[in-house]
Amino acid sequence: MTAFDVEALRRRFPALAIEDGGRPVALFDGPGGTQVPDSVIAAVGDYYRTSNANHGGPFLTSRRSDASSDEAHQAMADMLGAASPEEIKFGANMTTLTFHVSRSIGATMAPGDEIVVTILDHEGNVGPWKAIAADRGLVVRTVDIRESDVTLDLASLDAILGPRTRLVAVGWASNAVGTINPVAEIVRRAHAVGAWTYVDAVHAAPHLPIDVRAVGTDFLACSTYKFFGPHAGVLYGRADLLDALPAYKLIPATDRFETGTGNFEGLAGVTAAVDYLGDVGAAYGGAAAGASRRDRVLAGMGAIRAYEMELYDHLADGLETIPGLSMYGITDRERFADRTPTAALRLAGAAPRDVADALAAEGIAVWDGDFYATGLIERLGLADGGVVRIGLTHYNTAAEVERLVEVLGRIAARAAAGAAVAAG
């Protein structure tokens, strides 16, 4: 197996050559949306040059557009391990798709039926269920966290599950603190009481291999702009459930869940993004010559996971040296397999936005706030500014991490000096 060559991969991402004030940018903003490789940019451009047309026409450009759309459905089925491309539906983003399908799922429920959500989740997998519950007289129950390591309290889940539970909505991984949930076990517990599961895999998709059939979930949603593709949302649903759900669509629409004209140029980029992951698998993951797209993607995600977590170890080493820095989430090195390479932190004496501003002034991109994980940040008592989020991706380097740590150290020192002056 060839050693992971991050510099070779970085050359495929044009945005990584951007400079800010004469310095190369260091992009740790991946959880909000990743950069895209040259092949994705080319695929979108090629669509516009050769295939730009609406759906269903007999002429050349429409036939090409439909073939490109069909291939995107197959590519996402391959990436997620779905049984067929018919189990894949595209939309604007995960949140929009979830609002849309929640209407269909909610229509199968009766007043008093229960939906389970979690404190750990992004609002995209909480708000839609609360909205449909309010519309239909349903009950929403919430799974709590263990505050010490910001992981789901499965005992809380067991206490909530019951004969009226109809749906459990849970994230594969937390976009705020990086916790990876035991999805297969949660699905098993939900199915044991006859409930469906709806998994938000937005934060998991750039970092982990996904197999919807292995975990057994009924539905799963993600967004391709979080894993090196264009702005598009993806919904997986078991074929039997999608066929049985009531669909809210125009009568002549050919698909029951893809409403309106699709983002066809974006779908061309989706296929290229999935194939990029396959390229990583072929080059650095040990995928055999002639391996299927699914096997190449799995190999690519394995290589990405190994590199990212090695880099996260390096980041954790540096962060631990900074006085006044508090981390949220799993910090035990022996349990890093249960997290993504996404760090959530605060610096004593410095508001998260001030830290993000200071880093931005040095050409370093991070996010601050709650990232729509509003319930979690409130639960942690951090609603006054949230946290600083550092999101590593496989195109980040050790040198970038060291630069980040050095600047954070200077920010922490200034904050401590300011606090000392204020104290008199």
Q: Find the structural class using helix and strand composition.
A: alpha/beta
At CATH level 3, the topology of the largest domain is: Aspartate Aminotransferase, domain 2
Strand order of the largest sheet: 4-12-11-10-9-5-6
What's the name of the CATH homologous superfamily of the largest domain? Type I PLP-dependent aspartate aminotransferase-like (Major domain)
Write the layout of secondary structure elements.
Layout: H1 6-10, E1 19-20, E2 23-24, E3 26-27, H2 38-50, H3 60-80, E4 88-91, H4 94-106, E5 114-118, H5 127-136, E6 139-143, E7 145-146, E8 151-152, H6 154-160, E9 165-171, H7 183-192, E10 196-200, H8 212-215, E11 219-223, E12 233-237, H9 239-244, H10 264-284, H11 293-319, E13 325-328, E14 342-347, H12 352-360, E15 364-365, E16 367-369, H13 374-379, E17 387-391, H14 398-423
Parallel strand pairs: 3-15, 5-6, 5-9, 9-10, 10-11
Antiparallel strand pairs: 1-2, 4-12, 7-8, 11-12, 13-14, 14-17, 16-17
